[in-house]
Write a structure and sequence with these properties.
The complex is a heterodimer of chains A (about 260) and B (about 350). Chain A is about 40% helix and about 25% strand. By secondary structure, chain A is an alpha/beta fold. In chain A, a hairpin with a 2-residue loop joins strand 9 and strand 10. In chain A, helix 3 packs parallel to helix 6. Chain B has one domain: ABC transporter involved in vitamin B12 uptake, BtuC (Orthogonal Bundle). The interface between A and B is large, with 48 and 36 residues.
Chain lengths: ~260, ~350
């Protein structure tokens, strides 16, 4: 089953074409990677999917629902979670609140019930707290629930960001350079971790990454972008040996 | 020993009967003080001003502190509430025969102000920071000049002869009610939405927060409370004119917000109380009344040189205080901290540290 399908997506920043003729067919349960040099338009694609930018042309469908034209919170409520290239936690709020905020769309009570703390408010708030604590427990952050997010070390901030994205109860998780700033050892752990949350939360994952080790290690399909255009797509082995990819990444081969 | 005392104190604060009991005592005092004249009329008046200022400060804090916007329109919403309620009690509702209708007038003042808040919230979708400050400032000026140009409501001369319907119990009731509602709002998904907008609006939207709706609601609640405060103010002062609700009034509330500390209900209550009391102390008549126990030798020159000029100095001290607070005390009394009593127990428990074995630390 196709979970996410993009057809002929094009996005212009003024006169600059950031993404051109982008096509994507992401099957439910798949783990796909998008790679490409800096400025290739990878993050722009995430922003197009999640509604931060509106595609100039083309269509993006999630389980048959057209995403182009929806606002980010509507798209997120369809159960698409994401993380950010440079961590964007709510820095001055507690670890608990960071995860609780992501329950906004699931919390089923009206402003009046919130104002008077009546009706569904109590039950829903307790449910959110329980689910938040469960997630923090899974991510081994429970003892830090009351800590301010900005005080966490870098690695834990990354972890918290994933926990926050999972609070949306996503079917599709978009990870934007999850291995940024990690050493090889940490990348190994991260690979295991991604595989684990994938089965545990039954996720379809689309990830952007520069670390070849991670991409080649866990992705089932890889898409290579360069200057907004798709260079190649296929399983890791085929990508590794594709001359066009090698050229974009390593420069033209010089025969000496 | 001090650890024992602290435990006892914490235990007391955790009792669920504490807040209702304090509120009952407060309500009892609010009735008893004017009834038996326990405090003189002037101090009763100051107490009522403190209550009104608490409503204004807590509600402005919702927008300027919790949400991190910078609105200058608060006095405008206050004016709308004041004029609506005053017109109702003077021309529509038979409040003399049925004083019980007064809360209806106050509520209507709040609702009309909330609707205006909605209108101001619309441009705030697109803009933040300085630009919102300018738009809200423009709104304040529009409100003022619209009132000045409608003869039916007295134009620039204002409305004299409003009935004095605001009493200490009513001020107490409305203060508790509005503070309670704002506190409830803050500790709900909408309140957390407000906080996340302050932190990072785009990330907030991407975490499923309907940021537009949250802004709408926060603005409306804030202006609703300002309208209530305005209605109470009009029926206490018994005279309102457009000049009462100018930028100085907004500045007053801003000082109380930043003095008390942003994103803190307890801070706003402290800030409003401290500032109102300070401004009253700096009145020449109050100072004379406070210091006339001094021997004449000391009192007379003091009176002659300082006290009689306090009226002028008040207007110097007020802005100076704002500058000093911003420079040296940006967090204010309680910036981003909160009295435990204001935090719902569920929230407090959820934030407790728990070690890996599930024991509370």
């Amino acid at each position: 089953m196709t979970l996410l399908a993009a057809t002929e997506v094009r996005h212009l920043f003024g006169g600059l074409c950031a993404v051109a003729d982008f096509n994507l067919d992401l099957q439910a349960g798949q783990l796909m990677g998008i790679i490409g040099p800096n400025g290739a338009g990878k993050t722009t694609i995430f922003n197009l999917i999640t509604g931060v930018y509106q595609a100039t042309q083309g269509s993006i469908r999630f389980k048959g629902t057209e995403l182009v034209g929806l606002t980010p919170h509507q798209i997120t409520a369809l159960r698409i979670g994401r993380t950010f290239q440079n961590i964007r936690l709510f820095r001055d709020l507690s670890v608990l609140d960071n995860v609780r905020i992501a329950h906004y769309a699931q919390a089923n009570y009206s402003p009046l019930e919130a104002l008077l703390h009546i009706g569904r408010y109590r039950h829903e708030e307790q449910r959110i707290i329980d689910n938040t604590r469960r997630l923090l427990g899974i991510f081994k952050l429970e003892h830090l629930a009351g800590e301010t997010a900005k005080n966490l070390p870098y690695g834990l901030q990354r972890r918290l960001e994933i926990a926050r994205a999972l609070a949306i109860d996503p079917e599709l998780l978009l990870l934007d350079e999850p291995a940024a700033g990690m050493n090889p050892n940490e990348i190994d752990q991260l690979m295991e971790f991604i595989q684990w949350i994938r089965t545990e939360f039954k996720l379809t994952i689309l990830l952007i990454e520069h670390q070849m080790k991670l991409v080649m290690g866990i992705c089932e399909r890889i898409k290579v972008l360069d200057f907004g255009e798709t260079l190649a797509e296929g399983p890791p082995l085929a990508i590794q040996n594709d001359p066009k990819v090698l050229e974009a990444y390593l420069g033209q081969e010089s025969v000496g | 020993m001090s650890a024992l005392l602290k435990d006892a104190w914490d235990g007391l604060l955790d009792q669920s009967w504490l807040v209702p009991t304090l509120l009952l005592i407060g309500l009892g005092l609010a009735f008893a003080i004017p009834e038996y004249n326990w405090l003189n009329k002037y101090i009763q008046l100051v107490l009522m001003y403190i209550g009104i200022n608490i409503i204004l400060t807590v509600s402005l804090n919702l927008v300027n502190g919790y949400m991190g916007e910078f609105s200058l329109a608060h006095a405008g919403f206050m004016a709308i509430g004041a004029y609506t309620a005053a017109l109702l009690t003077m021309k529509v509702l038979p409040v003399v025969a049925y004083p019980v209708l007064f809360p209806l007038a106050v509520l209507t003042g709040g609702i009309v102000a909330a609707i205006m808040g909605l209108i101001v919230a619309v441009p705030s979708f697109k803009i933040r920071g300085d630009y919102l400050a300018i738009i809200t400032l423009a709104f304040l000026m529009i409100v003022k000049s619209v009132i000045e140009n409608i003869d039916y409501i007295g134009g620039p001369r204002g409305i004299p002869g409003i009935k004095r319907l605001t009493t200490l119990p009513w001020v107490f009731f409305w203060t508790v009610a509005t503070v309670w509602m704002i506190r409830n709002f803050v500790y709900s998904k909408y309140g957390r939405g407000v906080l996340s907008i302050r932190e990072d609006e785009i990330a907030s939207d991407l975490m499923s927060v309907n940021t537009k709706r949250v802004k709408f609601l926060a603005f409306m609640l804030s202006s609703f409370c300002a309208g209530i405060a305005g209605a109470l103010f009009a029926h206490l002062l018994q005279f309102i004119s457009p000049r009462v609700f100018d930028i100085i009034k907004t500045t007053d509330v801003l000082i109380m917000v930043y003095l008390g500390g942003i994103a803190s209900i307890g801070g706003s209550i402290l800030g409003a109380t401290a500032y109102t009391a300070l401004m009253e102390l700096l009145r020449p008549s109050t100072m004379v009344a406070l210091l006339n126990w001094l021997p004449d030798l000391v009192f007379d020159p003091l009176n002659q040189y300082i006290i009689q000029n306090l009226g002028v100095w008040r207007m110097v001290i007020m802005p100076l205080l704002l500058v000093l607070v911003m420079l040296y005390w940006p967090r204010g009394m309680m910036g981003q901290r909160e009295f435990r009593g204001f935090i719902p127990r569920r929230d407090r428990d959820a934030h407790r540290r728990i070690n890996t074995r599930g024991e509370k630390l």
